[in-house]
């Protein structure tokens, strides 16, 4: 008894001394004694120590030692070790810690210990013991321990691959998902979103490796996150949680190849000297199956795969040309003068000799006896007269189905309730409503002469019948917050519930036409006509279809243009269409653009319009991918989905859908023929000649327009001294808006407008309205039959592979060789990622300023006349935006028409004019999509802008300034300032859109990683936020 009493007195003395000690050395000595006493004994000694106030003494000592800064871990580590040993045996230890005030001190110690894992572990054990008390656990929650713990573990799931692998091997993914599901089910009032986000961040980081993704899928993580995200609804406070969940699901969705045998075009064309020529994209070395196989073998971190995303266009200053020897224009001929003489036939206005008139090529240069317009022949169009009444009736019978030749056998069909006689009457009535410069009979004959790689045998009704621009303008369509994510959730649902998916192929251009039953309610698709592009259609759900575009011929790339027919629809039903193999990383479809549709039913009712249609339009990255041939399959390139919904007005209608207003090669040839027939040869000098034949055997037209000369020699001399303006368009076949703009240019120059008359008196226009007929005919987006982008071949075009570019450059070189360098060259294009109409030009000084070159630009001379036309257009053309123009010269664009014509031909005013596919965000058309009427207006206004270059014409007539007075009032000064180039300017053909875009659902990257900012959250959190819902 005596011995026991002495030991008890000694322990109490030690504990009392420990509790009141502030000396580190004395405290450490007492801790060592207590540790030896407890280590040598049994659990009974620990309980005895607790009964003598041991727990309280240790907690008071912890408070005393944590107030010493910086923390002295020589004493803190033994102290924490004893607290762990004693606390595990004291059921009221957590409550005692709360009463004494040790909780906050322990949390502060943990925060200071974060950089050192060996100091963190004892703190975590102590906190775990505190939390055994429910009351103390709630107090810890109020103190922000949950966020602190997630901040602690997050770095180990982000960068530490070994730790991530151990987490996967130990089944943490399943536990995290279970914990997340538990929080989602219990947190019915969504008061703990920070905890939801923290759990998702952990899952997101662990799934950065393939093993983590596989474990996530095996744990049914897609279903867990999808059901939770859908249950959250559209509450603004939960959007960050939904964003993280969506990122995880999209990242873990298995990569899949497109449902095609090969991604290469289903059509091919044998090139001349095929053994020596290489298309742009060689045959894919990696079959589609390899994508799925390789995914199982990949074990590298996703952070290394971020580069696998499609690169955006390079707009860095490093791409700017700063070498003066290359930047300064250096006009020189790339061919012998004798070779260039072959282009004399394309300039009969210079010699008074016209090849198709049969006159002597060595005739007098004075030309006083010749009025070319009165002696022209129409060799190309001898068999193309306007149809008679009988032929018109035959045409109507053909279209209505009463009498169909082979060429129109599948062009279109109409509702069986509309008999042929009634439809024919409507069509005959429509013929009386003039579609300017279009005739179905002439179009048919032109189409019969058009050659295609696919050898199509039918006509699309909109192209055959023509298009009238609607009288109303169409606004930009809006997007609703969260709807894009809903579309993606529907896509993910396919993986979660594959049994609900039909996956029925309803159209395949690679195979024979599919046979369907009469009671089949699926839509019918067709694209085997001029400019058509649809490769495959797959029915996913009853009213949902996946569509796949065909690649450009001889490539496996360039998917953007689509144009196809569909029928068999039911009125009032919303049909969803998903074009799943888009390539560009962004699109104006995210900013108000809509596709266009032509309804045969509406046309028969007197409304033959292409109109903008579609709702719920979104453009986002999907889970389909392909290997990049340029990197030999080491990197994957992702595809993007364009999704839109259409509710048709008429059942069993026949409709045509397209990316933009179609304008076919046959339409162009019809237009030129009818323009030629309509002119007054006494006023307009018009020549329609053939520049060359394309690879596919189609003729590339070149048009000459000017004013017919008088009979006097002085008038003829003025005729031959006129300056040249050269215009080209449609080098990229998918840019059909460029054809509508050049159509406006042609019609304006042929009109009786006083400005048009003045322009014809001042200039000779050489217009090549379609540089890539083969691409247009075959429904390509960017390339010719050689599989190459013709606008990257201007530096060294090959006559056998790029004949239209070779001969266009030859014509320009010929004009320079005879002292007739064009005053203006402009290449018309379309732009898919920017609004408005704008220009790219070439400036030596502005390029050096933008590149921050050390070259003294004050010593360089440069004519600033290149800014004249854009500045005038900014004032007279409602769709034009000067602040979008750019005059930089990039190394990556040195082979484009604009740069080569400026540098090698010596044309100061060498431009690319870009017209948006979408609409405008400024000026008169702000908030509106551009239609064909507005595009044609752009072409007409461009011509009006040319008057500024002819100062001696300004006072010719007051009539010229009634409507376009701004033509004569534009500032043409360029200050010697390095800030003249717009900050968003770029000479890239397709620069990224500068507008904000919600890519929350995109694959995760370091940039979009939404990690938890604990400091910010703690400062903005009320004390009651983490109070548990006891209900």
TrEMBL record:
Peptidase M14 domain segment(s): 661-950
Needed cofactors: Zn(2+)
SUPFAM superfamilies named in the record: ARM repeat, Zn-dependent exopeptidases
Subcellular localization(s) per the UniProt record: Cytoplasm, Cytosol
EC number: 3.4.17.24
Xref: Pfam families: Pepdidase_M14_N, Peptidase_M14, TPR_CCP1_N
Biased composition (Acidic residues): 296-322, 986-1007
GO biological process: proteolysis
Reactions the enzyme catalyzes: C-terminal L-alpha-aminoacyl-L-glutamyl-L-glutamyl-[tubulin] + H2O = C-terminal L-alpha-aminoacyl-L-glutamyl-[tubulin] + L-glutamate; (L-glutamyl)(n+1)-gamma-L-glutamyl-L-glutamyl-[protein] + H2O = (L-glutamyl)(n)-gamma-L-glutamyl-L-glutamyl-[protein] + L-glutamate
Chief location of this protein within or outside the cell: cytoplasm
Entry's Gene Ontology molecular function annotations: metallocarboxypeptidase activity; zinc ion binding
Stretch list, region Disordered: 296-325, 968-1007
Annotated Gene Ontology cellular component terms: cytosol
Keywords: Carboxypeptidase, Cytoplasm, Hydrolase, Metal-binding, Metalloprotease, Protease, Zinc
UniProt-annotated catalytic positions: 914 (proton donor/acceptor)
Family: Belongs to the peptidase M14 family.
PANTHER family reported in the protein's UniProt record: CYTOSOLIC CARBOXYPEPTIDASE, CYTOSOLIC CARBOXYPEPTIDASE 4
Name of the protein in its database record: tubulin-glutamate carboxypeptidase
């Amino acid at each position: 008894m005596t011995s026991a009493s002495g030991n008890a007195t000694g322990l109490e003395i030690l504990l009392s001394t420990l509790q009141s000690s502030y000396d580190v050395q004395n405290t450490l000595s007492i801790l060592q004694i207590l540790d030896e006493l407890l280590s040598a004994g049994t659990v009974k000694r620990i309980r005895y120590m607790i009964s003598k106030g041991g727990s309280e003494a240790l907690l008071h000592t912890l408070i005393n030692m944590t107030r010493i800064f910086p923390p002295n871990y020589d004493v803190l580590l033994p102290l924490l070790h004893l607290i762990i040993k004693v606390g595990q045996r004291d059921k009221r230890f957590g409550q005692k810690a709360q009463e004494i005030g040790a909780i906050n001190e322990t949390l502060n110690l943990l925060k200071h210990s974060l950089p050192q894992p060996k100091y963190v572990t004892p703190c975590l054990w102590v906190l775990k013991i505190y939390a055994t008390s429910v009351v103390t656990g709630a107090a810890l929650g109020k103190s922000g321990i949950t966020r602190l713990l997630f901040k602690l573990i997050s770095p180990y799931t982000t960068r530490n691959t070994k730790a991530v692998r151990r987490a996967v091997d130990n089944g943490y993914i399943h536990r995290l998902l279970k914990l997340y599901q538990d929080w989602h089910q219990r947190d019915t009032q969504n008061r703990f979103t920070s905890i939801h986000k923290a759990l998702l961040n952990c899952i997101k980081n662990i799934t950065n490796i393939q093993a983590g993704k596989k474990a996530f899928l095996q744990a049914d993580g897609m279903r867990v996150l999808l059901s939770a995200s859908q249950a959250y609804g559209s509450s603004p406070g939960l959007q960050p949680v939904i964003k993280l969940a969506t990122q995880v699901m999209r990242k873990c969705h298995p990569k899949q190849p497109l449902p095609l045998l090969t991604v290469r075009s289903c059509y091919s064309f044998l090139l001349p000297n095929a053994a020596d020529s290489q298309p742009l994209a060689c045959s894919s070395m990696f079959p589609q199956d390899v994508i799925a196989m390789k995914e199982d073998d990949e074990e590298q971190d996703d952070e290394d795969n971020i580069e696998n995303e499609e690169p955006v266009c390079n707009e860095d200053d490093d791409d700017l040309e700063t070498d003066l020897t290359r930047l300064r224009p250096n006009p020189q001929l790339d061919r012998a003068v004798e070779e260039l003489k072959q282009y004399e036939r394309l300039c009969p206005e210079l010699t008074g000799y016209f090849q198709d008139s049969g006159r002597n090529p060595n005739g007098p240069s004075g030309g006083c006896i010749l009025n070319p317009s009165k002696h022209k022949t129409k060799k190309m169009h001898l068999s193309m007269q306007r149809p008679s009444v009988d032929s018109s009736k035959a045409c109507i019978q053909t279209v209505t189905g009463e009498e169909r030749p082979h060429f129109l056998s599948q062009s279109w069909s109409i509702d069986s309730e509309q008999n042929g006689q009634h439809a024919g009457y409507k069509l005959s009535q429509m013929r009386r409503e003039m579609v300017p410069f279009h005739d179905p009979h002439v179009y048919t004959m032109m189409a019969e002469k058009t050659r295609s790689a696919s050898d199509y045998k039918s006509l699309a009704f909109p192209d055959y019948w023509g298009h009238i621009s609607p009288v109303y303008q169409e606004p930009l369509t809006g997007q609703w917050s969260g709807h894009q994510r809903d579309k993606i959730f529907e896509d993910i649902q396919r993986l979660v519930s594959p049994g609900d998916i039909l996956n029925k192929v309803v159209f395949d251009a690679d195979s024979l036409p599919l046979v369907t039953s009469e009671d089949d309610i699926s839509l019918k698709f067709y694209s085997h006509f001029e400019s058509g592009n649809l490769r495959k259609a797959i029915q996913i759900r009853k009213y949902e279809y996946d569509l796949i575009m065909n690649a450009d011929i001889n490539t496996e790339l360039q998917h953007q243009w689509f144009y196809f027919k569909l029928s068999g629809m039911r009125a009032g039903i919303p049909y969803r269409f998903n074009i799943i193999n888009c390539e560009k990383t962004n699109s104006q479809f995210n900013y108000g653009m809509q596709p266009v549709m032509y309804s045969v039913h509406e046309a028969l009712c007197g409304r033959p319009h292409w109109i903008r249609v579609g709702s719920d339009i979104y453009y986002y990255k999907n889970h389909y991918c392909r290997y990049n041939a340029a990197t030999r399959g080491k990197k994957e390139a992702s595809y993007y989905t364009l999704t839109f919904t259409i509710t048709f007005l008429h059942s069993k209608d026949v409709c045509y859908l397209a990316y933009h207003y179609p304008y076919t090669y046959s339409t162009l040839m019809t237009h030129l023929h009818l323009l030629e027939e309509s002119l007054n040869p006494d006023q307009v000098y018009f020549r329609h000649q053939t520049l060359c034949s394309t690879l596919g055997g189609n003729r590339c037209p070149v048009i000459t327009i000017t004013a017919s000369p008088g009979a006097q020699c002085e008038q003829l001399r003025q005729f031959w001294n006129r300056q040249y303006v050269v215009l080209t368009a449609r080098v990229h076949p998918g840019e059909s808006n460029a054809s509508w703009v050049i159509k406006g240019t042609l019609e304006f120059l042929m009109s009786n407008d006083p400005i048009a008359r003045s322009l014809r008196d001042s200039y000779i226009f050489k217009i090549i309205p379609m540089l890539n007929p083969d691409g247009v005919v075959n429904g390509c987006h960017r390339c010719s039959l050689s599989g190459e982008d013709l606008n990257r071949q201007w530096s060294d075009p090959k006559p056998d592979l790029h004949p239209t570019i070779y001969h266009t450059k030859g014509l320009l070189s010929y004009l320079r060789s005879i002292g007739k360098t064009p005053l203006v060259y402009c290449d018309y294009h379309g732009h898919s990622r920017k609004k408005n109409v704008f220009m790219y030009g070439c400036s030596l000084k502005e390029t050096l300023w933008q590149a921050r070159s050390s070259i003294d630009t004050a010593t360089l001379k440069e004519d600033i006349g290149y800014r004249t036309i854009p500045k005038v257009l900014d004032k007279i053309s409602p769709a034009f935006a000067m602040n979008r123009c750019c005059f930089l010269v990039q190394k990556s664009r040195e082979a484009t028409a604009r740069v080569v014509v400026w540098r090698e031909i010596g044309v100061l005013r060498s431009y690319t004019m870009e017209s948006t596919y979408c609409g405008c965000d400024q000026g008169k058309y702000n908030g509106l999509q551009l239609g064909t009427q507005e595009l044609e207006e752009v072409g007409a206004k461009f011509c009006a802008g040319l008057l500024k270059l002819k100062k001696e014409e300004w006072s010719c007539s007051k009539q010229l300034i009634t409507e376009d007075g701004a033509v004569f009032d534009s500032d043409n000064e360029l200050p010697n300032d390095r800030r003249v180039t717009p900050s968003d300017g770029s000479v890239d053909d397709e620069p990224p859109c500068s507008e904000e875009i919600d890519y929350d659902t995109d694959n995760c990257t370091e940039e979009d990683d939404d990690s938890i900012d604990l400091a910010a959250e703690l400062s903005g959190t009320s004390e009651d936020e983490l109070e548990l819902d006891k209900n």
